[in-house]
Design a protein that fits this description.
The chain is α/β, with parallel strands linked by helices. The chain is built from seven helices and six strands.
Amino acid sequence: MFVIVRHGNTFAAGEPPRRIGARTDLPLTDDGRAQGEALGAHFAALGWCFARVLASPLLRTRATAQAIVGAQGGLPAPVICDWLAEIDHGPDEDKDEATVLARIGHDALAAWDAQALPPPGWRVDAERRIEGWRALFAAPPADGPVLLVTSNGAARFALLADPGLTVAMRGLPSLKLPTGGYGLLRREADGAWRIPVWGQRP
């Protein structure tokens, strides 16, 4: 079982959000740290003891991972994986949503959220990301659930790494995970993939 978490909030309440990617390494806000702690408490209440914890290199993802792991005594320590890093929004990096929409249009953003098709100018490196997920899925099964803490732009490529997941994702309203939210990927005994949770917050 793979538990995919999007990092907590990096913008304070009332602060206009911006497109923040790989080149803007913001820390979590107080609310963001609370989201990480809430996730840790939620997973602990479900009885999930993570066998492995992987996180992207950014401050916001590492801090979220550490907050979650803290709920199970601090182990296992998160392993940093470059293939989980956030995407690069190119000319839209650090721009507010209205500015981004004015450049790329609503259709391009809808295609990104529904099909992981990057808008023009965004640097995504989809192949490397998909290969990272495939290698993870092909590894010998862990002794418990595997936690991955990453960002909205990177998480969706898990769903493109296996044909069964790609079929299952068509039933999702969006590929987008909310901040402090998570998705769950489960491979059944017959090899079929299920996505029982996508976009849930504690």
